[in-house]
Design brief:
heterodimer, B: Cytochrome C Oxidase, Chain A, 68% helix
Chain lengths: 196, 559
């Protein structure tokens, strides 16, 4: 098969370009630690969240330097988030665990790269660090029913000292989940601040 | 002799398919205008926010599934028949698939209308992606299944024609147009199997109450197995036009037949194992598996980049045949006043821009910046909404006289139409891309959020909303121009005037015999494509169904 010389040059440049794109993502993952979600594979009975940690969603310290927030996304609000803001500490590893009892939702913290899909039956888990106190908007960016456009909320990053220690830190259940937090953590670097 | 004189039956089938496609694009386009104006806070009295989602569902389904599938099948009916020089084997089969294929969209469309018209007791406000556990009426799913199965029948007709032809021409290379059509249909068989399994085995029995629950992640994955490959099923008919007709419109010939075959085979092999890149933000799918499909997504850039080279080079060849000279001034020698040419050329230009946006979408981690923001519809209005749709409109200007034996009417309107579409889409998708970068979500009826501020670079939402309103209006005017030209041509008298275009498709400069015969071995390529799918989807699907096919499950939630 005869391929013209210019065509060969073009194909070579194209392949270099493609490899360069892949390399840039690899650099982002390995060099900058910017990854995505999905490794935790934690499933949940979405028809009965009341028998899980998601019965009483909110934030808790699991270690002096690790804060976990359980968030429920449901038609058509974030719990916490919509009625009360999600409070998280600055300069601390924050792990989000997000679950849905009804349909597929989006959990997008506007102005950051926290932007995940919440699928019933799965717990979406990811970790990040916020550099400084700030307030962010949250939107559901996956259509979830007639009131979808009303599904919004806020996330407030406060100084670490502003969040009191959680009372039940020593409970068995929490220390168990701490173990799994450690093993399946998926860091998600936040690209907040700076340019805004 | 026009095509219609030689193959009246196939011309009729092609016309009917294109007619359905045009009805879909007409209604879908009107819905698009209403939707953009509603979303941009320009006019909010047409319907309620809830009805907005029904309009959005109809716009997506009519444009992305009905318009594209019918137009493709019509175009290929012409291309396969013309290039093989023989008609379909059995007309009953042809009528059978056409009937099924037409019945399907009617059922689905009526289900969606249930939200807008109170006396229709159906509902299907589930958007184009119909993610479980949001549930539509069973008629919506039945309609989609019929559309897919009917289109398989069309593929069978093309393969049957090829088989008959090969019985009489055992040692001849497959004609290029038939090759491209068959490769595209094989890709369609492979990718639509995913959505067929989703609908037939999961969503339909579930919406009828036969099974209590489905696994939302599994059905979502089956959808996206289909949902990105289908993009290539839309794109390849445009490539079919760019390879086989655009060189002629430019005044020349395609450079290389074999390279075109290689490009289509690369699409057949690579386009299905990429769907996970729509699920980068999903739980329950390992990053490693997502990374693998990101790599195949990036490699599928290669056939598109090859196409960019060959098509532009063929255009340059054509321009030089027409007396064009110089490094770039040959561009002036191209027939920019001919809508069949200008539509294809502008579509290609837009596709280049859309492709660069797609590289952002495909990046495993960069994707998080724009995932499910309005950037995404901005992207696919460039690729599908322009590269594909504008090419289809452009080729209609040339093809319709062949299929009807009637001369094109309103040539000035036709000449202006592609430029209107181009400007409208540049304006509208510019606004969508920029809003998306600021985090404005897609698929919402709200122009602004009370608890959320979107910081747009340069200006504010007021300016981008104005562009949405204006861009959508230009697109709608352009669509109306197109439909007027087509309808008036259709209503004209056959044979009253010479056609002004001829149906001859010139041979490539370097013919099929310059390439190896193994390129024509579709059995081999299809088998490799299936193998690649098994490799790419075996592990994620196995992980998802380790608790059972329907677990963790969700019961239907009415939309």
């Amino acid at each position: 098969m005869d391929i013209h010389r210019y065509e060969k040059i073009w194909i070579a440049i194209s392949l270099l370009f493609i490899v360069g794109l892949i390399a840039s993502v690899v650099y982002g993952v390995i060099g900058l630690g910017v990854t995505t979600t999905g490794n935790s594979h934690e499933t949940i009975n979405s028809n009965d969240l009341s028998n899980t940690e998601f019965a009483d969603p909110g934030g808790r310290w699991v270690e002096s330097d690790h804060y976990v927030v359980d968030v429920v996304t449901r038609q058509f609000l974030f719990q916490p988030g919509t009625q009360t803001p999600i409070m998280v500490p600055a300069n601390t590893t924050v792990t989000f665990r997000v679950a849905s009892p009804d349909v597929v939702h989006g959990f997008e913290v506007v102005g950051t790269n926290i932007n995940v899909i919440v699928v019933p039956g799965q717990v979406n888990r990811f970790s990040t660090t916020f550099d400084q106190p700030n307030t962010y908007g949250i939107v559901c960016n996956e259509y979830c029913g007639a009131g979808h456009q009303n599904m919004q909320g806020q996330l407030v990053v406060v100084p670490r000292s502003a969040l009191p220690p959680t009372e039940n830190t020593t409970a068995n259940q929490t220390s168990n989940s701490t173990q799994s937090d450690r093993s399946s953590r998926t860091p998600l670097n936040t690209v907040v601040g700076g340019d805004r | 002799m026009a095509f219609v004189d030689e193959h009246p039956f196939e011309a009729k089938i092609a016309r009917l398919n294109i007619a359905v496609a045009l009805v879909a694009v007409g209604i879908g386009g009107l819905f698009g205008l209403l939707q953009a104006w509603f979303r941009a806070d320009f006019v909010r009295s047409f319907f309620s926010p809830t009805q907005y989602y029904a309009i959005l569902t109809a716009h997506g389904v009519l444009m992305a599934l009905v318009f594209t599938t019918f137009f493709t099948v019509g175009l290929f009916t012409w291309g396969v028949t013309r290039s093989l020089g023989r008609g379909f084997h059995d007309r009953r089969v042809t009528w059978g698939w056409f009937t099924l294929m037409t019945l399907g969209p009617i059922l689905s469309f009526v289900s969606v209308l249930g939200e807008l018209v109170s006396w229709i007791p159906l509902h299907a406000t589930v958007l184009y992606t119909f993610y479980a556990p949001l549930e539509a009426s069973p008629t919506f799913y039945v309609g989609l299944a019929l559309l897919v199965v009917g289109s398989w029948g069309a593929g069978v007709d093309f393969l049957w024609s090829l088989y008959d032809w090969q019985q009489h021409n055992p040692d001849t290379r497959i004609p290029l147009q038939t090759f491209m059509a068959v490769a595209t249909m094989l890709l369609w068989f492979l990718c639509s199997a995913g959505v067929a399994i989703e609908v037939v085995f999961f969503l339909l029995p579930w919406s009828l109450g036969w099974i209590p629950a489905v696994n939302p992640l599994l059905t979502r994955t089956l959808f996206w197995y289909f949902g990105h490959a289908v993009v290539y099923f839309w794109l390849l008919p445009a490539y079919f036009v760019w390879y086989s007709l655009l060189p002629k419109f430019s005044g020349g010939r395609l450079l290389s037949d074999s390279l075109a075959r290689v490009v289509f085979l690369l699409f057949l092999l690579l386009s299905t194992p990429v769907g996970l890149h729509h699920q980068f933000s999903d739980p329950g799918i390992s990053q490693g598996l997502k990374f693998v499909q990101m790599v195949s997504t990036y490699f599928i850039l290669l056939p598109s980049l090859m196409t960019a080279f060959t098509v532009v080079a063929s255009m340059e060849h054509g321009a030089r045949q027409r007396g064009g000279t110089g490094r770039l001034s040959w561009l002036r020698a191209l027939p920019w006043e001919n809508p069949a040419f200008s539509g294809c050329a502008l579509a290609g230009l837009i596709f280049a821009a859309g492709g660069f946006g797609g590289m952002v979408n495909a990046g495993l981690n960069i994707n998080a910046m724009i995932h499910n923001t309005i950037w995404v519809p901005g992207h696919f209005h460039l690729t599908v909404g322009t590269a594909v749709a504008l090419t289809f409109m452009a080729v209609t200007y040339w093809l319709l006289p062949q299929l009807t034996g009637k001369r094109l009417r309103h040539r000035t309107l036709a000449a202006v139409q592609p430029y209107l579409w181009f400007v409208g889409m540049v304006v509208m998708s510019n606004a969508m891309h920029r809003e998306g970068l600021a985090g404005v979500p897609r698929r919402t009826s709200l122009p602004q959020y009370s608890q959320v501020t979107f910081n747009l670079p340069i200006t504010g939402l007021g300016e981008t909303h104005l562009q949405l309103v204006g861009g959508a209006a230009l697109l709608f005017v352009s669509l109306c121009c197109f439909l007027v030209v087509v309808l008036q041509t259709w209503r004209g008298e056959r044979g009253a005037m010479p056609l002004a275009v001829n149906g001859h498709v010139p041979e490539p400069l370097s013919g099929a015999d310059a390439g190896p015969g193994i390129l024509d071995d579709f059995r081999l390529w299809f088998a490799i494509a299936v193998l690649l799918v098994v490799i790419a989807y075996g592990i994620p699907i196995a992980q998802m169904i380790q608790h059972g096919l329907f677990a963790p499950g969700s019961a239907p939630i009415p939309a």
